[in-house]
Amino acid sequence: MQTKVKTMKMLLGGEWVDADHTFEVLNPQNNRLIAYVPAASKEDMLAAIEIADRTYKSVDPWPVHERIRVLNEAADYMETHAEEYAQILSSEGSKTITEARGEVKRATQTIRISAEEARRIKGETINFDQNEGSEHRTGYYYRFPVGVVGAITPFNDPLNLVAHKIGPAIAAGNAIVLKPASVTPLSALKLAEALVEAGLPKGMLSVITGSGKQIGDPLVTHPAVKMISFTGGGDAGERISSQAGTKKVSMELGSNSPVIVLKDADLEDAVSSCVSGAFSAAGQNCIGVQRIYVEDEIYPDFVKDFVNLTLDLRVGDKTDEHTDVGPMIEEKEAIRVETWVEEAVQEGAKIEAGGKRDGAFYYPTVLTDVSDNARIAQEEIFGPVVIIQPVMNLQEGIEKSNNVNYGLQAGVFTNNLQHAFYAIKHMDVGGLMINDSSDYRIDEMPFGGTKGSGIGREGVRFAIESMTEQKVVCFRLQSNI
User: In terms of domains, do 136 and 173 share one?
Assistant: First the structure.
C-alpha cells in the first residue's frame, strides 16, 4: 500500500507556518518518501527566538498552576492519540512498532512527570545569623526560569528526548526553541501539536525544522537564548560548547557502555538482559550495551548462550509486531558500522554472529577477540554490535570498562554485595545498574555521565534545576520598631 505523502508545517512562535524550501523525510526501511518538511532559514530561527523572548517577558510570571494544566492536558492528548504517535515515530525512525509504542508511553510519562515537578520548584530559608553581625538578617533563595532555552535533539528517541527538553522547560516557566534531528522531525512536530491543543501560550514553544548548518548557529549564539540543552555527538557538542560562550549548557554526548558479568551472577538473566540492551532500537541507543566483560570461568557458556539468543532475534519489517530489530536510521550509518566491524576483523576480531548488511539493515553482531585499542572498542559504535571479552576478575573488568573516554552508564551482574559496592565506588560512570544491563533508565532519575559523555544531568527534576537560576533574598530587619 502506498503511503500518502504529507506536507508539514513547522511551529514558529505558536503559529504553524511554511518555509520557502522543504526537505524530504524518508522511511529508512525502504527509502519511501513520508513527508515534506519546512527547511527553515536563519531568518526563521531568529524570528522564533525573538518571539520566544518577547513572549517569555510578557507572561512573566507564568503561574505554576497554568504550567501544570498545560502539561497534563498535553499528556492527555498524547494518550488519546497514542497509536498515531507510534506510527509516526516508527515510520520516520529505526524503531519497530512495538518499540515505538513503548517510547510513546515513556514520552507521555515524561510530560506528566514535568507537570508534577512544576509544583516542586522550591527554595530554602537561609540562616544569615550564623555569621556574627547578621543577627537581624533573614532570607531565602528561590528558583526562577532562565528565559529562553535552545534545544537540539537527535534521531534515536525522536519523541521522548524531545519531551525531556520541552517538558522541563515549560515546567520551569521558560520559553523554548527546539531544533529536532532532520531525519526524524515529525515526532517533535506531533508533540508540539499536543501542547498547542493544550493551550500553551503562543510563542512559548517553537519547533524549527531544517539543516543544522543553517539554523543551529543562530540558536546557539543568539544573546536572548540563555541556555542550550543538547543531546547528540561529541564533535557537535564540543563545537556548540565553544560557540555558546558563557551561556548555561547541558549536554548528553553518548557513550560506549560496558557491562561486567561475574561468575556468581544469574547467567540466563545476564545473557537475556545484555542481548536486549545491545540490540534494541538497532543498537542506536546511547546507553546500549557495547562491551561485555565476562569472568573467565563462565565466559565460554556466556558467549554460547549470548550467540544463540542473538541468532533468535527477528530482523525485518518495522511494522511487524514480531520483529525485534529494524533498520538503522540511514544506509550510510549501516555502511559505517560494517566498515568498523571489518576493521576489527582485520585486526584479529572474530565474528560469532551477524556481520552482514542488507541496505540500512545491519544484523545483530557479536564480536570476540577484539583489541582494546580497536576503534570499535574505544568509540561509540551506535549500531547493533557488541563485544564480549573474558576477564580474570572484577578489578580487571573495571579497569577495562574505564579505559575509554566515555562514562554514561554501565551494568554489573553479581550476587555478591561486596563486589557490587566495589564496582559502585570504582566505575567512572554517571549511572551503574546492578543486575541490569547499562540499558536501563527511568525518566525521573538523573541521567548523564562523566568524561566525554557530557555536561550536567537530564531527568525531569534535574533538567528543571539546570533550566532555572537561584536568587538569594536577604532582609535586614530594624532592631527596634
Answer: yes
- The active-site residue out of 103, 274, 286, 333 is 286
Residue 91 counted as domain residue:
yes
Query: Which DSSP string do the residues of 223-246 spell out, in sequence order?
Result: TTEEEEEEES-HHHHHHHHHHHTT
For position 437, which CATH number holds?
Answer: 3.40.309.10
Phi, psi of 459 (to 5 degrees): 90, 135
Phi, psi (deg, nearest 5) at residue 257: -75, 130
Please check whether residue 1 lies inside any domain of the structure. no
**pLDDT of 1 higher than 60:** no
* pLDDT tens, position by position, 7-56: 999 999 999 999 999 999 999 999 999 999 999 999 999 999 999 999 99
The verdict on 89 and 111 lying in the same domain is yes
Residues 247 and 269 reside in one and the same domain: no
Render 117-160 in DSSP notation, one character per residue.
Answer: HHTT---EEE-GGGSTT-TTEEEEEEEEE-SEEEEE--SSSTTH
Both 430 and 379 in a single domain? yes
117: annotated active-site residue: no
What number of other Cβ atoms are within 10 A of residue 297's Cβ? Answer: 13
Domain limits for position 316: 257-443
Is 274 an annotated catalytic residue? no
* 201 cis-preceded (ω within 30 degrees of 0): no
Mean of pLDDT values over 454-479? 95
Cα–Cα separations (whole angstroms), residue 361 to 26, 90, 275, 316, 323: 15, 15, 17, 8, 13
For residues 198 and 311, membership in a common domain is answered with no
Count of residues making up the chain = 481
Domain membership of residue 402 (yes or no) is: yes
Q: How far apart are the first and last CA of the chain?
A: 83
DSSP bridge partners of 291? 258, 387
Distance separating alpha carbons of residues 186 and 184, to the nearest angstrom: 6
Q: Are residues 116 and 145 in the same domain?
A: yes
- Measure the CA–CA gap between 14 and 404, rounded to whole angstroms: 43
Same domain, 233 and 97: yes
Residue 479 within any structural domain of the chain: no
Q: Which of 73, 92, 252, 352 is catalytic?
A: 252
pTM (2 d.p.): 0.95
